[in-house]
Write a structure and sequence with these properties.
Layout (H helix, E strand, L loop, with lengths): L9 H10 L6 H11 L4 E5 L5 H14 L6 E4 L3 H15 L6 E4 L6 H9 L3 E4 L1 H9 L10 E4 L2 H6 L3 H10 L5 E6 L4 H10 L4 E5 L11 E7 L5 H11 L5 E4 L3 H13 L4 E4 L5 H12 L5 E4 L1 H4 L9 E4 L6 H8 L9 E7 L1 H14 L3 E3 L2 E3 L6 H13 L6 H7 L5 H15 L6 E3 L3 H25 L1
Helix pairs in contact: 2-3, 3-4, 6-8, 14-15
Bound molecules: adenosine monophosphate.
Length: about 450
């Protein structure tokens, strides 16, 4: 199948040629004919698959042919809004298609004027778009095609309510396209509500940027202060032959490798400040199994092809998705199985999700318990201090009133059990947060981040 098969408008073909697209990507092959047929569509695809052009090309074509007048793309972030708007502009400029990125943090006036004047494709973030609709500023903007791009990201960022509200302003007789890298239930529900009888397609990237299936990938969400302890406990509990531990910085490599040596592991550090002869010796020793644990930076470990690495640990999550793929690809080589374990703090959790989405990694949340599960004095003290630090709820008298007929002892037992369970209080060392704790902490973290941002904005 080639781009010719889509019978695009000549002016659009010019844009395609200049963009240098030679043949349609898999998602484009599947999505474009469906969109041309006017169908609603749910497409599961990661960034990098060519998904923007998959919806952009048929939209531009329909505008260029006069089949529709206006389209709307909703994206989770302003960066993505700008990127999508730019790509659509470049593809559609010979067809005279006008695009506009609309997002918060900048003045309303120009955006309102351009939308009302009649730009063809508006690429907007949910917050600003909702504002504009709510305030009656863009009443005449009635897009005939609406795209929700990176819907799962919108869910993560807490935008789904805004999205639902926006759809109340958009005419029913529209074509709706939903793109998402993952399909959590909330997105499936959304699709059921705002799409009409959609087609479903799924295209997962199949190139060296995706991760190898032989590798079991786990992650632990930990407190920042638990990192050193966690790596030691994991090495103790995992049955490894050779382990590679990745750090972000040279001095972190030095610190972690010294710590592991002090704890009795056959470990060495590897980074660019160690002289070449010494580095060669360390790699040779690791190869020959004289060193069992190699702690390294990304740069030092680039291209290392060492047989028998059973485990890769990410002491810190890498800065970018490709490094993640590269790091974990040091294990599971030559058809062997491997295990990759990543430690993340709540603050790093967002980066992990981004990496997971971009490379389609199959990462599984994990916890381990070390030691016994008796309830000793330490745990008891933790419980007491948790309870003492609770503030008494102002409505407590009303709540107490409604429990006045309950057995007080029984009630107290249940409440204490609730606190123990919710707060994970136990004498055993539990490594890693459970899913509900991750969700709770992550939501709090997002709220704090948002509050900080708002404060900064107000200051400005
Ligand atoms: P996306 O998945 O939309 O973020 O696109 C990833 C990149 O692939 C963008 O830089 C596009 O310009 C590019 N691209 C999209 N479709 C094609 C294609 N058919 N051939 C070559 N590059 C493409």
């Amino acid at each position: 199948m080639s781009f010719n098969d889509f019978n695009f408008n000549r002016d659009l073909n010019k844009g395609l040629k200049i963009a240098g697209f030679k043949e349609p990507s898999p998602i484009q092959k599947e999505a474009i004919p469906l969109i041309q047929d006017g169908l609603d569509l749910v497409a599961q695809a990661h960034t990098g698959t060519g998904k923007t052009a998959a919806f952009g090309l048929p939209i531009i074509d329909k505008i260029a042919n006069g089949e529709i007048e206006r389209a709307l793309v909703i994206t989770p972030t302003r960066e993505l809004a700008t990127q999508v708007s730019d790509e659509l502009y470049h593809l559609g400029r010979f067809a005279g298609v006008r695009t506009l990125a609309v997002y918060g943090g900048v003045g309303y006036g120009r955006q309102i004027a351009l939308i009302n004047k009649g730009v063809d494709i508006v690429v907007a973030t949910p917050g600003r778009l909702k504002d504009l609709y709510n305030n009656g500023k863009i009443d005449s903007f009635n897009p005939e095609i609406v795209v929700l791009d990176e819907a799962d990201e919108m869910l993560d960022m807490g935008f789904l309510d805004s999205v639902r509200e926006i759809f109340e302003y958009i005419p029913q007789n529209r074509q709706t396209l939903l793109f998402s890298a993952t399909m959590p239930d909330a997105i499936k529900d959304l699709a059921e509500n705002i799409l009409y009888n959609p087609e479903y397609i799924s295209v997962v990237r199949d190139d060296e940027e995706t991760t190898n299936n032989n590798i079991i990938q786990k992650y632990f969400v930990i407190e920042e202060s638990q990192r050193d302890n966690a790596i030691v406990k994991l090495l103790e509990s995992e049955d490894y032959n050779k382990a590679l531990i990745f750090c972000r910085m040279k001095r972190e490599v030095d610190r972690v490798s010294e710590h592991l040596k002090a704890m009795g592991f056959e470990a060495e550090g590897l980074h660019g400040d160690i002289d070449q002869i010494e580095r060669d010796r360390i790699v040779k020793d690791f190869r020959r199994n004289n060193i069992k644990v190699l702690v390294a930076t990304d740069v030092a470990a680039r291209g290392l092809d060492i047989k028998g690495v059973t485990h890769v640990f990410n002491y810190h999550i890498p800065f970018d998705p490709q490094s993640y793929v590269h790091r974990i690809g040091r294990t599971g080589r030559a058809g062997k199985d491997g295990k990759a374990i990543t430690l993340v703090s709540i603050e790093e959790f967002r980066e992990l999700k981004r990496i997971q989405k971009e490379v389609g990694a199959n990462l599984e949340l994990s916890t381990i318990t070390i030691g016994d599960d008796n309830f000793d004095d330490t745990a008891l003290n933790e419980l007491k201090s948790k309870i003492e630090s609770f503030e008494i709820n102002q409505k407590i008298d009303i709540i107490m009133e409604s429990f006045k007929d309950s057995d007080k002892d029984e009630l107290l037992k249940k409440l204490l059990s609730y606190v123990v369970e919710k707060e994970n209080i136990s004498s055993a060392l539990k490594l890693g947060f459970e899913q509900d704790r991750v969700d709770r902490f992550y939501n709090e973290y997002l709220k704090e981040e948002k509050a900080k941002k708002n404060k900064k904005r107000k200051k400005r």
